[in-house]
Write the structure tokens for this entry.
Amino acid sequence: MSPRSARLARLSRSVTFSACHRLHSKSLSDEENLKLFGKCNNPNGHGHNYKVVVTVRGEIDPVSGMVMNLTDLKEYMQEAIMEPLDHKNLDQDVPYFAEVVSTTENVAVFIWESLQRLLPPGILYKVKVHETDQNVVVYKGEE
């Protein structure tokens, strides 16, 4: 076999966590929040079983044959996603959401930022958050 140039690949892993939240912006009146968020503005909140798919990308290591060790990715996801979010009230238990509305878009940003602090630089490619089967957010770190 002849030597080949570096092969790039994407590797994805998923986790599922359960959490509750209330869609409510401190910048809006109660009436405006109700109009904007409807039943998701319920003062008692509501819950979801979120599915998160994290994708990393990089060169396939010629020795290990991997972009990244899945055991390492699993541990990073445990620390960045499961520990802070699973079985939590996002608005009350996660300091990030004290001032940020806990929409799925913002949950994806929170996960991205948490993973960025843990993963090797430049390897994180995409965070995909399924709030329901019909509602999915993809975040790639764009500003």
User: Anything to note?
Assistant: The chain has one domain: 8-139. Residues 70-85 form the longest helix (16 residues). Strands lie at 8-21, 46-59, 88-89, 124-130, 136-139. The mean pLDDT is 95.
